[in-house]
Amino acid sequence: MAIKTFNLPDPGEGLVEAEIVEWKVKPGDTVKVNDMVLEIETAKSLVELPIPWAGTVKDLLVEVGQTIDVGTPIISIDDGLGGDEAPAAAPSIPGEKAAPAEGASEAILVGYGAKAGATARRARKGSVAPVAVAPVAAARTETEQVAAAAPVAEPVVPAARVESPAPAVPAVAPAIGRPKAKPPVRKLAKDLGIDLASVTPTGADGIITRDDVTNHASGASVNGVATQADSAAVPAATACRMPFGAGEREERTPIKGVRKMTAQAMVGSAFTAPHVTEWITIDVTKTMELVDRLKGSREFKDVKVTPLLVLARALVLAIKRNPGMNATWDEANQEIVQKNYVNLGIAAATPRGLIVPNIKDAHAMTMLELAQAIGQLTATAREGRTQPAEMSGGTMTITNVGVFGVDSGTPIINPGESAIVCFGAIRKQPWVITDADGNDEIAIRHVTQLAVSFDHRLIDGELGSRFLSDLAAIMADPAQALVWG
Q1: Which ranges carry the Lipoyl-binding domain (predicted)?
Q2: What is residue 464's DSSP assignment?
Q3: In a domain, 28, yes or no
Q4: HSE-CB for 211 with a 13 A CA cutoff
Q5: Are 354 and 255 a contacting pair, CB within 8 Å?
Q6: What pLDDT digit, counting tens, does each position of 417-437 carry?
Q7: Is 477 in contact with 290 (CB distance < 8 Å)?
Q8: How far is the CA of 301 from the CAs of 37, 305, 375, in angstroms?
Q9: What are residue 338's DSSP bridge partners?
Q10: Residue 454, phi then psi, degrees to nearest 5
């Protein structure tokens, strides 16, 4: 057989490490070229990795929860083509093409091309580093040979290797320090801050189940006997499951991944670009009427139509009338770079933090195309599948705080952009209307607030005010778009 080792590939965007979130395969599984075998979290998104070879999974070289560098060996595959076993301690450079076996065609990994350069690898945490092995007959113990021949019905921990040249023995003592659990259960324990070694297993063959973890978590909180690992970080999404005041007096949540990247970007933006924010309150009753008509139209029956769609279209038209808003500040060259295209960012709150994917070339889209793009962008973000490329290159962003019932806010500009629009909640309120004869009357109307924060280094008050006024004019009367469009 020939053993091939797959290294963590370079995800791009300058990212140098990733956290192992979930294994989708286990030792003994059969995989095909481009099967998804692993889910990782980078500083920008969740990414599923395909395998570039077909064969049988031999070993999972990293554990769920580990953060590893690009280039670290993560999985080994037996391609079944024969030949000497490749030393696992000599990983290929990320992006380097593995030499195919004689007579076999070389597989290409979808989504990852060759990339020059090498990255240093570091030792895996909590496990023995891969070592070069002798021929198969001498490398395996009798226990390993039996385990390899038997069918596996449940995910199991790979048997411990005997590194000394001593003869094989009939039985090997079970490995200590790595409890048996499926990847989703390991992830749940990690999220709850629970050491699996302290959980009593109830599953077959000593496997820890999801119920074991949740029962342990609730028991530790209620009885007040939490271990040091139990009192570790608990994400906000899971902390709400525990009664307030029932657990530890303080909880700590590690800041990493998407949330860490967002925090760093927002701090950099807030203390680099001088922010100015302006507000306007408008009657959007006609926009709401347009939304109702579009929902009933044949063309829009398969897409979600909301006031956000109208605002997105209005923003594109307002930028065309005020192109100076769609620019960025080049500090190195001391230049203002105006962009004659619109990559429209939509801020999305996800379980892993706030992300801002953007719709490329939104200025060239019809209303229907824009609706389809927003729907796809939102669905992908909620699933945590947004790719780094989808979050780069934005020119202006909309943050929709209205979905939380919030009237308005002073948003921080997304790095690399010059302005961000805040869309508040739409409420029915009393509003003064002037009829054709100049008479005023009070009526119940749909009212909202728009706010725009902009970089005062390149956008002055006049330009920012004209942009906001144009945006409000279209939201107040969408027919205005026929004149400006």
Answers
A1: 3-78
A2: H
A3: yes
A4: 2
A5: no
A6: 999 999 999 999 999 999 888
A7: no
A8: 37, 9, 13
A9: 327
A10: -140, 160
**3-state secondary structure labels for all residues of 46-60:** EEEEECCCCEEEEEE
Give which of 32, 72, 91, 84 is closest to 56, Cα–Cα: 32
Pair (213, 303) in one structural domain: no
Give average pLDDT by consecutive 10-residue segment, the chain, 485 residues: 84 73 90 88 76 90 87 88 48 38 40 41 44 37 37 42 42 52 72 79 82 70 34 37 65 67 70 88 97 94 94 96 93 90 90 83 95 91 80 92 93 91 97 91 97 94 96 96 85
CATH code, domain with 243: 4.10.320.10
pTM for the model:
0.55
Phi and psi angles of residue 440, each rounded to the nearest 5 degrees, phi first? -95, 145
CA angle 222, 228, 229 (to 5 degrees): 90
Domain boundary among 99, 133, 149: 149
How many residues in total does the chain contain?
485
Q: Write out the two tokens for 394.
A: 């934005």
Tokens of residue 126, six digits: 């909590």
Which residue range is the domain that position 203 belongs to? Answer: 180-254
Which token pair is 94?
């990320």
| Token pair 């709400």: residue | 240
Residues 200, 286, single domain; the answer is: no
How far apart CA 346 and CA 324 sit, in angstroms, is: 20
Q: Which residues are catalytic?
A: 456
Give how far the C-alpha of residue 34 lies from the chain's centroid of Cα atoms, to the nearest Å: 21
The structure tokens 């960012």 sit at 345
Q: In the numeric block, which tokens belong to residue 50?
A: 């395909």
CA distance 379 to 398: 17
Asked if residue 94 and residue 70 are part of one domain, the reply reads: yes
Please give the pLDDT value at position 173.
39
